[in-house]
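REQUEST ID: PR-0412
SUBMITTED BY: lab tech R.K.
PRIORITY: routine
TASK: structure prediction, single protein chain
INPUT:
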Amino acid sequence: MKKVELLFDTIRSPYDIAHIIQIANAIDCVIYTAGKNSIPFNLPKIQSKVKSWNITEKITEIHYETFEEAIADLKSKGKYLIGTSGNTNKIFYDLNLPESQDIVVVFGTETSGLTDVKQAMLDTTVKLPMDKSKVDFLTLPVAVSAIAYELYRRYNF
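STATUS: complete
OUTPUT:
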């Protein structure tokens, strides 16, 4: 059974973090964060929201000081890194995933996503399909939910 792993570049929204913790608990997910401006997951505001949802399991947040440090470490551990971006033609659901490597899905900042430079550091970049005439973007918790649950389904059912 493969674990779903997620990396967030400079995550700063307590609301988004609380939702990500809920998702991570539901699918036994490993979470990595990167960036000196990321807020820690153990802030009281975040923890009280999570507790209000009856989530009692602690999520381990593995933090890296820089995005580059996170990428280098995860690649050295043999992880396959998938970035997310609305500016690619590759659809997530069409992606052929390696069977022999663990997968880490990489999400950019809540406001600007992954830069082109950061996308180039990854093994591939994908997007979720959507009707662009109705929706310009997906919020971070929505994108995380769709991708994390699909990977969980693929590897565990």
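NOTES: Residues 140-156 form the longest helix (17 residues).
REVIEWED BY: pending
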